[in-house]
Amino acid sequence: MFRSSRASVALLACVLVPSLAAIGCGGERLRGEETAVLTAPPLVPPPITRTHPTKVIVNLEAHEQTARLADGVDYTFWTFGGTVPGSFIRVRQGDVVEFHLANHPSSKNPHNIDLHAVTGPGGGASASLVIPGQTATFTFTALNPGLYVYHCATSPVGMHIANGMSGLILVEPKEGLPKVDREYYVQQGEFYTRGDFGVAGHQPFDMRRAIDEDPAYVVFNGSAGALMGDKALTADVGETVRLYVGNGGPNLVSSFHVIGEIFDRVYTEGGTKQINENVQTTLIPAGGAAIVEFKVETTGNYILVDHSIFRAFNKGAIGMLAVGGAADSSVFSGRQYEGIYQPEGGAMQRMPTAAAPVVPTAKNRAEQIAMGERVFAQNCAACHQPNGSGLAGAFPPLAASDFLNADPKRAIGVVLHGLSGPVTVNGVQYNSLMPALSLNDEDIANVLTYVYSQWGNNGTRVTPDQVKAARAAGGQRVNMDAH
Ligand SMILES: [Cu+2]
Questions:
Q1: pLDDT tens readout for residues 40-57
Q2: H/E element, 414
Q3: 347, exposed or middle or buried, with CB in 10 Å at 0-12, 13-18, 19+?
Q4: How far, in Å, is the centroid of ligand 1 from the Cα of 405?
Q5: What residues does the ion ligand 1 have nearby, CB within 5 Å?
Q6: Which residue has the higher pLDDT, 263 or 344?
Q7: Pairing of strands 55-70, 89-92
Q8: Rounded to a whole number, what is the distance in angstroms from the first to the last CA of the chain?
Q9: Residue 318: which of 297, 342, 353, 286 has the closest Cα?
Q10: How many Å apart are CA 122 and CA 101, to the nearest integer?
Q11: pLDDT-wise least confident of 37-41, 280-284, 475-479
């Protein structure tokens, strides 16, 4: 039951009958309350056995963390629930979903969530916008059944998705889905790194490559090899397998195919009515999904690929379903072709040979500005916006900022240590928190020199030596309460 304060929320109107029992949309009675079981890929929460709608509480956390993208290659992923793709969410048609999005205090960026299963403005995006260390709640009714993508929609949107912020939510139809033996969660996505595929070291996001739709990596489940070797999906002969396949993009369309299998059924584009049978390859749009089902009739390794095939063998879009049990020679005569894929697949496994990228240093103010622009795009633009305008009520402007122009030393301290407490910028007060960003002296000098050179600011040049001196002087987060 809902507290009366919620009655004004139009979204919930169809579940509220004043002073009587709550009735779900479609006339079903809303009963009880539960917390959703979320799973990390490739696992899927258990099927829903309820025959009535309920209130489902979903707790999801945005968390930025560095992890393996390929052998010898690390990447700072932005995640929902600590994995890429994000946690799998499973609800039933008619459920009222109370969604709690938290942003871990260690995050450097604000995040939100747009669930394609939501009927309502932005799919929940502005209702869920949270800065680091904040949590927000909104509620929606799962009106339409189907398999839906969710993703972060905080600006720059493409960058948040490209860093890993997407996943799947299944809204089971009222009658449920047919029983199968195995269910798995697979999602394709691209990564736009400075270095090409396999170049070792920690690889930063490359905005230019992303805009050019030129990914270095196209992978299933967040990293090259996430579904290979001992991490392959498994099944036994005679079982039915259902794959929930998403495509987070952000740019590419997937031609999803399993080598050596035919999809007995495809829920086209993740909908529930258009069921296609006997399909070899199904198109999964960026920001879309499909449910594929097939029975495994004989043993062997079945290879999941994006049939835009260079992506599979040269960019990582390859996974494996290992089927055990007794081979059925009437289905297939023997001599299996799994070996044929290994030599090329081996290109993915190649040992890192190239050295980690050398960080260049700026020689003059012009170079500082050019390099600072990149630091800004990666570390500041998400909050202060690409044009420095800020975001009313949340992030102060850097464009023509009297606060910034008054005191370069203080500005260095802000970027070094963060900022909290009330601060007045161009006559408007903000009282929020900017996290410390752990940038090096060179990056801080360059980004501030860039910011000072833009948008009507006073052109101050900040040198790495000044930052070094400020760092050596120590200090902590600039707290305006104390000023
Ligand atoms: Cu985000």
A1: 999 999 999 999 999 999
A2: helix 408-417
A3: exposed
A4: 30
A5: 111, 152, 154, 160, 165
A6: 263
A7: unpaired
A8: 48
A9: 342
A10: 15
A11: 475-479
Q: DSSP letter at 429?
A: E
Degrees (nearest 5) of the Cα angle 436, 438, 444?
95
Which two tokens mark 277?
A: 């049978």
Q: What single DSSP character describes residue 346?
A: G
Q: Which among 162, 92, 103 is positioned nearest to 130, based on CA atoms?
A: 103
Condensed to tens digits (0 to 9), the pLDDT of residues 430-472 reads 887 777 767 889 999 999 999 999 999 999 999 999 999 999 9
Euclidean distance between CA atoms 277 and 298, whole angstroms: 20
Sheet containing strand 478-479, edge to edge, reads 428-434, 419-425, 478-479
Cα separation, 293 vs 240, whole angstroms: 7
Query: How many whole angstroms from 112 Cα to the centroid of ligand 1?
Result: 6
Tokens of 157: 């949107």
What is the structure's pLDDT at 337? 53
Q: How far is the CA of 109 from the centre of ligand 1 (A)?
A: 7
The pLDDT assigned to 27 comes to 66
Given a contact cutoff of 8 angstroms between Cβ atoms, the answer to whether 408 and 462 are in contact is yes
Task: Supply 200's token pair.
Answer: 């070792």
| Confidence tier at 101 by pLDDT (50, 70, 90) | very high
Name residues whose C-beta falls within 8 Å of residue 361's C-beta, 6 or more positions apart in sequence. Answer: 442, 464
* Helix, strand, or coil (residue 268): helix
Pinpoint the alpha helices (H) of 204-327.
Answer: 207-211, 310-315
